[in-house]
Amino acid sequence: MEDDRLVIRVPVIAANWKMHKGPTETRQFLEGFLPGLHGDGGSPEVVICPPFVSLEAAVAACEGSPVEVAAQNMHFEEQGAYTGEVSAPMLVELGVDGVVLGHSERRQDFGETDENLARKMVTAVSAGLTPILCVGETEEERRSDETEAVLSRQVLTDLAELHDEQLERVVIAYEPIWAIGTGLTASVEQAEEAAATVRELVRTRDAEAAEKVRILYGGSVKPENAAELLAPADVDGALVGGASLSPEDFAAIVAAAPTS
Ligand code: 13P
Fold first, then answer.
1. What is the model's pTM?
2. Fewest CB within 10 angstroms: 159, 183, 244, 252, which?
3. Tell me, what CATH number does 169's domain have?
4. Annotated active-site positions, please?
5. Is 14 a member of any domain?
6. What is the distance between the terminal CA atoms of the chain, rounded to a whole angstrom?
């Protein structure tokens, strides 16, 4: 069973750099990180998510390597009067492979809504970008036993506009907000339970997609705790913030991913 899972779902280890690293630092990171990477069959998929201005440098540096590049947001329209925004076709033109959508920092600080996200998910998948959809509850919501309800609302609304056959192309990151940048992690049991809940929610849409969708854990993942957090059957990788800024630490987290 365990082996089947790994054959079907290749783990994903993604670096969300947030508002860190311009083009120069991006190149420096990749010069340090890429040579140590073993891109053979048993490896996880590795994704770097730099700020918009560093995407081009990242794509150029990753060319010829197995590392993929994703943006941290995008607009749902292909073009238009949306000052300060970036569209899916623009990301595709740069050679970007994916896009993080619905990170809690965008939901909390920039008014990202599930309705917008539903549109963004369709735009991303239709453009050929792999969306990494972030979901997760606040500390208050967990305390009042609302985690499942929050995940249900987010997952079902954000995926609502996708056709069933598009669902398997989505990556979903469970990121409890109370564990982001706090040094607190979910326990392995909490990560496992939430990932299983997310998979069951996808199953209510399509059983085959539920088996194929990669579900990541995010929230204070470090080299020291990565192996443990990545072990549960329904956790297929990690979305890493702070620890992904160091090539050595991120490489150690990649090395901790289960191999197929
Ligand atoms: P930290 O790893 O810094 O807690 O951030 C997690 C995160 O928000 C990844 O998207």
1. 0.95
2. 183
3. 3.20.20.70
4. 103, 175
5. no
6. 12
